[in-house]
Amino acid sequence: QVQLVESGGGLVQAGGSLRLSCAASGSIWGINDMGWYRQAPGNQRELVARITGVGSTDYAPFVKGRFTISRDNAKNTVYLQMNSMKPEDTAVYYCNVKFYGVGTYWGQGTQVTVSS
Hints:
The protein is mainly beta. It is about 0% helix and about 60% strand.
């Protein structure tokens, strides 16, 4: 059994910052890719950023230069530092983790709201 617990969402003004965390626990043999997705009302879920097991990163064009994904392998945790936030960043953010031998899991989602 594997669990993902997200934290760090909330309300921020435009131009502000938030940091999301997603911690994995349970029967973990190893973690491959970790990522963050988001879904705004009426929209499909979309990739925000992802990081491989060796630390390579990939970002959606709309967050490049503003968001930074990182991971702490000792803590089985992935982070998303969000700076220079815009109202269009408002969405529910989900972490996505690929576990070796177990499969891919989603976090419960955390609401991020950016006011103008």
